[in-house]
Amino acid sequence: MSETKKRLLTGLQPSGALHIGNYFGALKPFLDIYGEYDSSLMIVDYHALTSLKNPTELNRNILDVAKDYLAIGIDPSKATIFKQSDVPEHTELAWIFDCLVTVPFLMQGHAYKDKVAKGLEANAGLFTYPMLMAADILLYDTEIVPVGEDQRQHIEYTREAASKFNIAFGETFKEPKEQILKGVGVVPGIDGAKMSKSYGNVIPLFGSKDEITKAVMGIVTDSGGDRPENVYAIHALFKNEVELTALYEANKKNYKALKEALIADIEAVIAPMREKRDSLSDEEVKLVIKEGGERARTIASAKMVDVRKKVGVTL
Ligand code: AQP
């Protein structure tokens, strides 16, 4: 991590296999600009614990997500790839933020409400999730956070946590800005709702061709309009409007042909990355995570020395 460049940071939960919504919402915007910044890419494993209570699966997912990061083209010498649990200062700072924000404030969280409405357990970790995310970001004086539209409110919460702390204890944290890729918004899942690991409605980023085919063929289409909107919305991530208009005009009402075209377009992007991913060994990926964790911890522990002093717990 450098002292001069602005800091860029984002993270994804190893709560399941990453999907194309994660790719276009968070990873692609990160990939496009990370070389210009002092960049970090986290595997936010303690966040995943809010929904996943299977240690074998969580362990496997952590390695899988790290492999995904490397396979999409992130160079670990140009970005600090690390896992949240390797830097205990994240959970420590989250506690301090929990003590600064109110329950009614957290109750306005869209992500929390959506997840509980979808049947996820309303555990206290899920409820206070935005403050752990604030800690993830603020510990590193992050200025830019590439995220999907669904996370916009969490970055507002992060600014609020920074400001509450700064007012209570003196200027300490920078208020970061979200970076949301134009035209991406919220990528819909195969059922038309937000594509989400925990909703079982994904097109997996690194699925086999068969898995991708099965997911695309399962996209819910309604026969009302001129074109299958759920298919089109995903297709628009892979092809420009001119190409798509011609394709959808030529195949009006032929949903099977349009889905087959979408499968081919997804494959063209994913196949080379899948090849790279298959060449990565668990051991080399573990080393990347270990070294990244050490780099991140150096920054985070220095920041926490200042924070502990300011809140009054250092003797
Ligand atoms: N459907 C989506 N469209 C655009 N961006 C998306 N992101 C997630 N889904 C979409 C972005 O991916 C990043 C990773 O988010 P996360 O793993 O921390 O959790 P999430 O947003 O809750 O993602 P999921 O897939 O929905 O995971 P689960 O089901 O485990 O909660 C974020 O930047 C997010 O905006």
Explain what you see.
The protein has 315 residues and is mainly alpha-helical. The protein folds into 2 domains: 210 residues, 3-Layer(aba) Sandwich (Rossmann fold); 80 residues, Tyrosyl-Transfer RNA Synthetase. Helices cover 54% and strands 7% of the residues. It is built from 13 helices and 5 strands. The strands form 2 sheets. The protein has a 3-stranded parallel β-sheet. Strands 4-5 form a two-stranded parallel sheet. Strand 4, helix 8 and strand 5 form a beta-alpha-beta unit. The two termini are 30 Å apart. 41% of the residues are buried. The protein binds adenosine-5'-tetraphosphate (AQP). The site of adenosine-5'-tetraphosphate has 21 residues, from helix 1. Adenosine-5'-tetraphosphate binds next to helix 1.
Output the strand order for the largest sheet.
1-2-3
CATH superfamily of the largest domain: HUPs
Instruction: Encode the helix/strand succession as letters.
Output: EHEHHEHHHHEHEHHHHH
Determine the CATH topology of the largest domain: Rossmann fold
DSSP summary: helix tally:
13
What structural class should be given to the helix and strand makeup? mainly alpha
The biggest beta sheet, please? 3 strands, parallel
> What CATH architecture label of the largest domain applies?
3-Layer(aba) Sandwich
Distance between the termini: 30 Å
How many structural units, i.e. domains?
Answer: 2
Q: Which molecules are bound besides the chains?
A: adenosine-5'-tetraphosphate
Output the CATH class name of the largest domain.
Answer: Alpha Beta
Helix content: 40-55%
> What's the overall average pLDDT, rounded?
94
Task: Give unreliable regions as ranges.
Answer: none
What fraction of residues sit in β-strands? Answer: 5-15%
Radius of gyration: 20 Å
- Molecular shape: globular
